[in-house]
Design goal:
This protein is α/β, with parallel strands linked by helices and 336 residues long. It has eleven helices and twelve strands. Bound molecules: adenosine-5'-diphosphate, iron/sulfur cluster (SF4) and magnesium ion (MG).
């Protein structure tokens, strides 16, 4: 599988009154062509900040460190064999280079489409704009045709009529489809979806997940799928990375992590996932720690039922979990 995205040691620092905090802390991950990586974690674990930092959309004043190599698709759709010029470190790219990459190479859909769509512009005009930015030479009728193609690809029924409507005239599910159409309009190889189904009811959620799965197959799309819900991960992800307090604490093949989690935090999340457990749901006691008051050792220690003194000495390394697949790793001293 050709590599599409390779993130190494991504750290995001934000200035606060009590000093710099790290909502994203030394995160490394890879995403292959046509692959879906699920990023899971409770609210506040740094998932959105990770996505924004990759897109170059982090808040003003933020500092980013690390590398994020994006491998562009070649004309024949095969990422392999391309010259090194096709590989670009997005963290080293300037604002204008990032504008050329965003939408064209990597795109993002958000949890609440209403915040990303412009309420006073017709849906079609917004998709048109997403195409025009990257292909200014297309004429009006070509752009119109491409817009209808994009809406059709996102399974928007009656695309001509929907294109003439305003976002508020669409249901939540249709708005998310329009967002997906817009995100994919310029043909990016990588799509980041940040809780795209969280605001939707279960039936519509399922339809959107099926749409993303179909698009991924048709377009060989690489998907970074962010969610707090392991039930969703089980439906869409090949691999999963679990985040806690800005760090990846467990990663591995989705099926294996779901069946045999190797970090107490992942175990806790799975026990709290409504669609995966039959017995009584058990939420994890306590809350995600404040980023300006992290424990010296394992960040999960205050909530961990298996905590021992050694956990507080240093932040555990992300290590291979003994007896697990080669690419299944966990940040817990128990894994040794
Ligand atoms: N603009 C900001 N300034 C300061 N802290 C922020 C800002 N945005 C997010 N945070 C903090 O960063 C952490 C991660 O947030 P976020 O990435 O939104 O988490 P998630 O998407 O996993 O819920 C949280 O502690 C949040 O309070
Ligand atoms: S390192 Fe210790 S505190 Fe952290 S998850 Fe493992 S057992 Fe729990
Ligand atoms: Mg978020």
């Amino acid at each position: 599988m050709a590599m599409r995205l390779e993130v190494r040691g991504l750290t995001v620092e934000l200035p606060t009154r009590s000093g710099w905090i790290r909502p994203v802390n030394d995160v490394s991950l890879t995403l292959g062509e046509g692959e879906t990586l699920g990023i899971v974690g409770e609210s506040g674990s740094g998932k959105t900040m990770l996505a924004l930092a990759l897109m170059g959309l982090e808040p003003p004043g933020a500092r980013r460190k690390g590398e994020a190599w994006l491998q562009r698709a070649t004309a024949n759709g095969n990422g392999a064999g391309a010259g090194s010029s096709k590989r670009e470190d997005m963290l080293a790219a300037g604002p204008s280079e990032m504008r050329a990459v965003r939408g064209r190479e990597i795109a993002m859909v958000f949890q609440e489409p209403m915040t990303a769509l412009n309420p006073v512009l017709r849906v079609g005009a917004q998709v048109e704009e997403a195409i025009r930015v990257h292909e200014p030479s297309l004429n009006v009728s070509e752009i119109h045709r491409r817009t209808l193609d994009a809406l059709t690809r996102a399974a928007v029924p009656e695309p001509e009529r929907r294109a003439r409507q305003y976002p508020h005239q669409l249901s939540g599910g249709l708005r998310q489809r329009a967002m997906i159409a817009m995100a994919l309009a310029a043909g990016p190889g990588v799509l980041i979806a940040d809780e795209p189904t969280t605001a939707l009811d279960v039936t519509v959620q399922k339809q959107i997940l099926e749409l993303l799965a179909a698009l991924r197959r048709e377009l060989r799309l690489s998907l970074l799928f962010i969610t707090h819900d392991f039930g969703v991960v089980s439906q869409i992800a090949d691999r999963v990375a679990v985040m806690y307090a800005g760090r990846v604490v467990e990663e591995g093949p989705a099926a294996e992590v779901l069946r045999h989690p190797r970090h107490p935090y992942t175990e806790g999340l799975l026990r709290a996932a409504p669609r995966l457990v039959r017995e009584r749901l058990a939420s994890i006691p306590g809350a995600v720690p404040a980023l300006d008051a992290l424990p010296t050792g394992c960040a999960f220690a205050p909530r961990c039922s298996r905590h021992v003194a050694e956990c507080d000495v240093a932040v555990p390394e992300l290590i291979h979990a003994s007896g697990a697949s080669e690419n299944h790793r966990t940040r817990c001293i128990l894994a040794r």
